[in-house]
């Protein structure tokens, strides 16, 4: 059967999507491939069709390495429905069942065998692969979720490292590795670790035009979330990500108390409860799953209408992966994140306190900074997001002006005008309503010199609250006790609200012009970059606080 007839007759699809055709031809012919395609792009067919075609040509079985049992079950189930001989080998099988699969494997009675990486690299399994190869019955290796091999990926799995054995031991067997997320660093790591230097690289566009990106300043996060769901997503299925288990529980409860059907999901819950919640989310309509990042990988629910982040992820890959779970059916969906000063401080601290090598931490900091840049951006989020993955955003040819959406843009014609100016996507918060910005360069200098002066005066640093108190001329007990009301910067920042000061500080943290010392009560300190800001060499532009648009800052004219 040709690959096109396999697509149509076995899978029931009319045409290949995007680069599928090229990839499938290449792999069927025996070429190695590294496939970068966004979630929902159709990666599975890229190895399933070559597996079938090669099996029919007498080349034997395809081994699919997959990190998740749930994923294997889904795929094998779907393949059975299509009449394809697929099986899996994992810890859920009894000894009897596993033996039977192994027997059929040796008889060449299986087209695709799914297995976990730790299983594939056991001596027992390798001996079976040896036997298959001797008979010329080992056709293809497909390595799914290939970013798991990289510590730069968001989901490092040490077992993936051992997969180099596939190339070393079966050099003549073609390999296809697939992943939905890989920035330049991760990509290079995958190629090196899996020895895919010779593989052809297939990169699809990572744009998800139906997802609308919105990042708001964190005030009262749970109230903001509640408003977001009520205003835009009542009755919709969605996922809310929180950092801690406690916050997951609290948020799920809050949503339920407010008439929103929500369920918690985190690693601390009993496995049965977790499974039941997941099943309900998948099967029922309009459930909101409140979860830690333990939830989501391999979950294919097409009609998730929103993904909300109450806490900031670690990096852009994580953000992209998590938000990518929205709108897999192609209909309009929202990616909403609420982000504040504390997020920056927390993420920085987690990196600082981790036991990793300094060089590795430096890498993590760089990744975090890229995400902070995205959060602080006043221009198109999509352009920034795609640029991070090395892609230049181009408006889709079939969607002049705006991407096709199920819902009208809020803001009407004004939003339209903003969107049509410049190279923005027209479907993110900044494109829909160009944020008003103010020049905070001067404020930033005041803040930095206050940090400097208290350090000089007291011999050690202070935290954000204290520094802002000084700027705003609040003679608190602590300020008086330390004699800080005598500083020349005492009260010079009365023109800004505390929130605005936190915004300035957040931005300074984001660009690395202020450091937080986690070992010393989160005290603030100057950095190398501070000097440039103090000299006025680095302009600081801040978005106008959206919560109070009428009371224009007295400084906005500057
Ligand atoms: P990924 O693994 O990249 O996240 P999947 O392989 O799960 O994506 O595919 C996503 C969805 O798209 C699945 O429901 C799949 O059946 C469907 N799909 C894939 N390729 C095609 C195609 N050529 N035509 C129609 N539907 C497709
Ligand atoms: Zn945009």
TrEMBL record:
**GO MF annotation list:** 3'-5' DNA helicase activity; ATP binding; DNA binding; four-way junction helicase activity; hydrolase activity; metal ion binding
Under Gene3D superfamilies, the record lists: HRDC domain (1.10.150.80), P-loop containing nucleotide triphosphate hydrolases (3.40.50.300), Winged helix-like DNA-binding domain superfamily/Winged helix DNA-binding domain (1.10.10.10)
The reaction(s) catalysed by this protein are: Couples ATP hydrolysis with the unwinding of duplex DNA by translocating in the 3'-5' direction
EC number(s) reported in the record:
5.6.2.4
InterPro entries listed in its UniProt record: DEAD/DEAH_box_helicase_dom, DNA_helicase_ATP-dep_RecQ, Helicase_ATP-bd, Helicase_C-like, HRDC-like_sf, HRDC_dom, HRDC_dom_sf, P-loop_NTPase
The cofactors named for this UniProt entry are: Mg(2+)
* Region annotation Disordered: where it falls in the sequence: 546-558
The yes or no answer to whether the keyword ATP-binding is present is yes
Q: Which keywords annotate this record?
A: ATP-binding, DNA-binding, Helicase, Hydrolase, Isomerase, Metal-binding, Nucleotide-binding
Name-wise, this protein is ATP-dependent DNA helicase RecQ
Q: Write down the species.
A: Rhodoferax fermentans
